[in-house]
Amino acid sequence: MNIRTTLSEVLLKQPFISDENELVLLEKYKQIAQTYSIIENSLAVLSDLRSNRSYIYYGGVGETLGIASGYTTEDINSIWEDDIFNRIHPEDLIRKYLCELRFFQLLKLLPVEERSDYQVLSKLRMKDKSGDYILIHHRMFYVSNCSPENLWLALCLYNFSQDAFPVEMNNSLIINSATGKIVDTDPDSCKTILSTREKEILFLIEKGYRSKDIAEKLSISKNTVSRHRQNILEKLRVKNSFEACRVGKLVGLI
Question: pLDDT tens for residues 16-43?
């Protein structure tokens, strides 16, 4: 499975239960998300993992990105806001997904009362309405649970980044906002996206080997190599081998 499919499996198939206060809590956090869009000009997204639904509030960032005009709102039947995600640089989107998967896994190990203290901070390259990449500061929190066994409501905020750093750099980290401490994440967790054979083939592709050469070197058929190549593209959510090699290097696969 690719990383987005893995995230969907993990997030949407949690053991959700009914909560008599859930409608009140949902309205509370919808108002908070809308307030961020007004006060900070954020593009704010509140995702309801139980119902697979998102509530989007477009501040000034949304208009600059060309996604909305003015302060508008939208509800969609998915936790995947593709109008937003399609504007994120493919390399940054992969890293965003990976960090959020690690974030989810970390929070499940923490006491419920501590989970809201943690957030993901990312620097993303996103296309504006002219098609040019600009730097966006992304924050992501889990703000409410239905029970200790699940994470229910996630809040994402997109703001203009004021930091001066090279466009090719992308930073994602998990931080305890109550203490300011950066949480160390497993540097090898990204390496499980591809199988051992797929990583071997990606390494050989990066070295310039053709499918026929790879088949001979690994003593497998050319059709098997082609199947593995297609799986690599799907798992990394890229369109060609060049992009696969770039993303593979970025996340430590090769």
Answer: 887 788 899 999 999 999 999 999 999 9
Question: On the CB side of 101, how many CA atoms lie within 13 Å of its CA?
Answer: 21
- Distance between the two ends of the chain, CA-based, in angstroms? 19
pTM confidence score = 0.75
The alpha carbons of the chain give a radius of gyration, in whole angstroms, of 20
pLDDT tens digit sequence for 173-193: 889 999 988 876 555 556 677
Could you give the CA distance from residue 232 to residue 116 in angstroms, rounded to a whole number? Answer: 35
What secondary structure does DSSP assign to 181-197, as a single string? PEEP--TTGGGGSS-HH
CA 231/CA 200 separation, integer angstroms: 13
DSSP count for the chain of H helices, then E strands: 10, 8
3-state percent helix, strand, coil for the chain, nearest multiple of 5: 40, 20, 35
Could you report the per-residue pLDDT of 93-111, keeping only the tens digit for each? 988 888 888 888 788 878 8
CA distance 54 to 46: 6
